[in-house]
């Protein structure tokens, strides 16, 4: 609100004494006397004109001689005084005739009583008295002007206040947010239509802060908000603004909606509290949209973080901003490594894939996606991981060169392992077929040689020759046995059949009898009367062959190979079956090796091992619904390894 204007000091023209004296030189003498006393005075020659021209001239005081007041003049003067504004009380000085009261003076006194009570001065009058009386009248008139100016200033201030209030009302009503104004004691004195639209009820009567408890609002945790906890009372109590807070409010139609409340105190220049103001915003739709977005982001995050497909987000300059948990586990990095920018494209990619990566980057810039291709990533430990890579460019407002790239990676390790296992299996099958073919072909000349030795025995031979012949027959029988067992070892069955564990083990031992003898390994065979098991004998012989071969490799300087067969019941698979134990007294395995022996391509034999034997064996045992376990010790006093193979006596579909 603007300040009221400074009171105006009356102009000299407003304090002019108008003299009405029609007789002789009375007017001239009176004016001369007043002017000599520094009082501005003017003659009023035409009384009617003088009173009618009030819009152009102001009268400080009216000095009349008694003879100037005819009955017509008294009426004109009365009408003039009635037209004056309420603040005005025109001083009238009447010079009366001295001496005895006349009929004229009595009539004049009766008539002038209708308009005012003039100041009477009886002639003859002293100059000092006249001047003092006129000056007093002018001072009175000047105070009236001051009252006039004060009233004008008040009216101007009221007009300005009215305009400002109307402007404030218009502003409040046009604001897109609700506004509440309160007195220091918490009484709400003003609100706009927007607030009522948000609340869906008229302004609630609030006589004090406690009355605001009738507002039903809840926090995000569901707790009810007390009256003094709303932002408006807090702002006035703490005398500082309260930032926006979201409240779940029960509106006038009994629906719940999220509104935002903020408040600030209203202080004067001395810091005294004048009241408070609160802003109200409807944020229900934004909260709902935000909640939907949060749920959508949460679903997407769970999908990405639980996905078995690796996801990497970065830029074409080599920076990486995100790697999902699946890929982090595969590469051996942590989320902190990514946040600290310790992971970059150049560290993950071997140099031989630079050309493939450049082609993918070109495709991303040209068409937004890159054709899937195979490559290798290097883990943190340096292990090479085969991957299938696909990439897409995420939209960016900064142009294609600053685009963010999402890379999807599928681990091909198992596929590559399966391919290698298939190749190895094909090699083993080819070797088996070759061995079977050789065994079959050997049987024909063996039969001929056997017949020839039989005929030779019919001849008379020296004792020495006979002993040689007997030795030849023994070795020939051994060759025939090996050929037969080899043929039977590699014979593939089309369906599972019942077979005793001894029948499974004997061909395996026959194959390695030479190595066992040459390696100075003693074989102990225990419990050969176990019940038959149902299996694919070729597959199980392959498992036993691998276990016996590994045991022999572990005892290069000799030892004891223990084979134990017994009926048992495995609680882990809830089945009855046979347990075949193969134990050696070799050097044993440390815990770090034992944990990884069933991983594909893991070997301790260097170039002499493929790392697939135990992995394939484990898969065969699982296919037969069995169990394969291992225990090992590197204790110098008691070392060695024991494999425990459990096979059920009956297979389920």
Short description:
The chain has 653 residues and is an alpha+beta fold. Helices cover 43% and strands 24% of the residues.
What does this structure look like?
- The chain has 653 residues and is α+β, with helices and mostly antiparallel strands.
- It has five domains: 141 residues, Rossmann fold (3-Layer(aba) Sandwich); 115 residues, Beta-Lactamase (2-Layer Sandwich), CATH 3.30.450.20; 104 residues, PAS domain (Beta-Lactamase), CATH 3.30.450; 65 residues; 157 residues, Histidine kinase-like ATPase, C-terminal domain (Heat Shock Protein 90, 2-Layer Sandwich), CATH 3.30.565.
- Helix content is 43%, strand content 24%.
- It has 19 helices and 23 strands.
- A six-stranded antiparallel beta sheet has the order 7-6-11-10-9-8, sandwiched between helices.
- Strand 6 and strand 7 form a beta hairpin.
- Helix 13 runs antiparallel to helix 14 and helix 14 packs across helix 15.
Main sheet, how many strands, which sense, barrel? 6 strands, antiparallel
Q: CATH superfamily membership of the largest domain, which one? A: Histidine kinase-like ATPase, C-terminal domain
Output the CATH topology of the largest domain: Heat Shock Protein 90
Q: Residue share in helices?
A: 40-55%
Shape-level CATH architecture of the largest domain: 2-Layer Sandwich
- Work out the count of structural domains: 5
List the strand order in the largest sheet.
7-6-11-10-9-8
Summed over residues and divided by their number, the pLDDT gives a mean of 82
């Amino acid at each position: 609100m603007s300040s009221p204007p400074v009171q105006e000091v009356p102009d000299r023209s407003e304090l002019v004494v108008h003299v009405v004296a029609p007789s002789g030189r009375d007017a001239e003498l009176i004016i001369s006397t007043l002017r000599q006393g520094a009082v501005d005075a003017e003659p009023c020659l035409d009384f009617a004109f003088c009173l009618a021209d009030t819009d152009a001239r102001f009268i400080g005081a009216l000095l009349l001689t008694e003879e100037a007041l005819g009955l017509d003049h008294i009426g004109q003067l009365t009408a003039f005084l009635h037209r004056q504004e309420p603040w005005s009380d025109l001083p009238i000085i009447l010079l009366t005739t001295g001496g005895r009261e006349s009929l004229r003076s009595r009539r004049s006194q009766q008539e002038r009583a209708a308009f005012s009570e003039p100041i009477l001065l009886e002639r003859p009058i002293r100059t000092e008295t006249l001047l003092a009386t006129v000056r007093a009248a002018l001072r009175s008139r000047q105070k009236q002007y001051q009252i006039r100016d004060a009233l004008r200033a008040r009216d101007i201030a009221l007009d300005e206040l009215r305009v400002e209030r109307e402007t404030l009302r218009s502003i409040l009503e046009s604001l897109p947010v609700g506004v509440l104004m309160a007195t220091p004691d918490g009484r709400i004195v003003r609100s706009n239509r927007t607030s009522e639209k948000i609340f869906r009820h008229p302004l609630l009567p609030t006589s004090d802060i406690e009355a605001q408890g009738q507002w039903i609002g809840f926090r995000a945790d569901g707790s009810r908000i007390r009256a003094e906890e709303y932002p408006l009372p807090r702002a006035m109590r703490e005398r500082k603004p309260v930032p926006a807070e979201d409240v779940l409010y029960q509106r006038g139609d009994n629906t719940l909606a999220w509104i935002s409340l903020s408040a600030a105190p209203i202080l004067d220049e001395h810091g005294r509290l004048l009241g408070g103001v609160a802003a109200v915003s409807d944020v229900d739709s934004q909260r709902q949209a935000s909640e939907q977005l949060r749920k959508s982001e949460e679903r997407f995050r769970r999908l990405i973080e639980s996905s078995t497909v690796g996801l990497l987000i970065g830029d074409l300059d080599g920076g990486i901003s995100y790697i999902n948990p699946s890929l982090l586990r595969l590469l051996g990095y942590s989320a902190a490594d990514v946040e600290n920018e310790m992971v970059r494209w150049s560290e993950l990619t071997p140099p031989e894939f630079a050309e493939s990566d450049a082609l993918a980057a070109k495709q991303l810039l040209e068409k937004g996606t890159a054709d899937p291709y195979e490559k290798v990533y290097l883990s943190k430990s340096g292990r090479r991981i085969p991957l299938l890579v696909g990439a897409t460019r995420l939209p960016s407002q900064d142009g294609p060169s600053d685009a963010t790239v999402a890379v999807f990676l599928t681990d091909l390790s198992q596929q590559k392992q399966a391919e290698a296992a298939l190749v190895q299996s094909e090699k083993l099958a080819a070797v088996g077929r070759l061995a079977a073919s050789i065994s079959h072909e050997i049987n024909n000349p063996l039969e001929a040689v056997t017949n020839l030795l039989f005929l030779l025995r019919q001849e008379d031979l020296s004792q020495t020759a006979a002993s040689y012949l007997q030795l030849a027959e023994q070795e020939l029988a051994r060759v025939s046995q090996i050929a037969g067992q080899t043929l039977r070892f590699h014979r593939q069955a089309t369906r599972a059949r019942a077979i005793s564990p001894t029948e499974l083990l004997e061909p395996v031992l026959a194959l390695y009898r030479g190595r066992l003898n040459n390696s100075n390994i003693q074989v102990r065979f225990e419990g050969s009367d176990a019940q038959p098991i149902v299996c694919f004998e070729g597959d199980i012989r392959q498992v036993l062959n691998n276990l016996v071969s590994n045991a022999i490799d572990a005892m290069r300087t000799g030892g004891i190979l223990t084979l134990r067969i017994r009926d048992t019941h495995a609680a882990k698979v809830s089945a009855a079956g046979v347990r075949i134990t193969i134990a050696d007294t070799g050097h044993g395995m440390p815990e770090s090796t034992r944990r990884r022996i069933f991983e594909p391509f893991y070997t301790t034999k260097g170039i002499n091992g493929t790392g697939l034997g135990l992995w394939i064996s484990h898969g065969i045992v699982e296919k037969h619904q069995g169990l394969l376990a291992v225990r090992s010790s590197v204790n110098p006093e008691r070392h060695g390894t024991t494999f425990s193979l459990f096979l059920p006596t009956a297979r389920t579909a």
